[in-house]
Write a structure and sequence with these properties.
Number of helices: 6
Mean pLDDT: 82
Structural class: mainly alpha
Helix content: 40-55%
Low-confidence stretches: 1-15
Shape: globular
Strand content: 5-15%
Length: 160
């Protein structure tokens, strides 16, 4: 005996939202950010290899992420969480904010070099690496007395 299957209706596709056009000011800011990133990529004597700088920039462009911060970092969960706290409105590092995050999460950093040129970048990169290990083990980032749970996939990737 043949059975009759009920036909299911597929919902009509949702109407596509009209894409918003960036303002000329926003376009100018993004163009300036991209130009600055391109200049930084070509700088010599950098700790970060040119290939990684290009990878970070291209990954951010493909994802449509605006500003300098996503184009000069790996732009993962921890990078985005830190950017919210340790960067100012011009996406520059505020060392005191980074130090506060490192202190709150138990990263010993007071003995790190703060004299030779480029120390801020090395503090940011070394601090992130040390913080990454601690956050992955704990499964959460402590910020301003709150615990922000790390995504499972991020923890799995960075847990040693």
């Amino acid at each position: 005996m043949a059975t009759r299957h009920a036909k299911t209706k597929t919902p009509a596709p949702a109407p596509e939202a009209e894409p918003t056009q960036p303002t000329p000011e926003a376009e100018a800011i993004e163009a300036a950010a991209l130009a600055e990133i391109d200049d930084q990529i070509e700088k010599r004597r950098s700790v970060v290899a040119v290939g990684y700088k290009r990878l970070y920039r291209n990954r951010a462009l493909e994802a449509g992420r605006l500003g300098k911060a996503p184009k000069r970092s790996c732009d993962d969960w921890l990078a985005r969480e830190l950017a919210k706290v340790v960067l100012d409105d011009k996406e520059r590092l505020v060392v005191s904010r980074l130090e506060a995050v490192l202190d709150e999460n138990g990263v010993a950093h007071r003995n790190w070099n703060r004299v030779t040129p480029g120390w801020q970048g090395r503090l940011r990169m070394s601090g992130r690496m040390a913080l990454q290990r601690i956050v992955a083990q704990r499964g959460a980032l402590l910020l301003d007395g709150e615990s922000r749970e790390a995504p499972e996939a991020w923890v799995a990737k960075h847990r040693n």
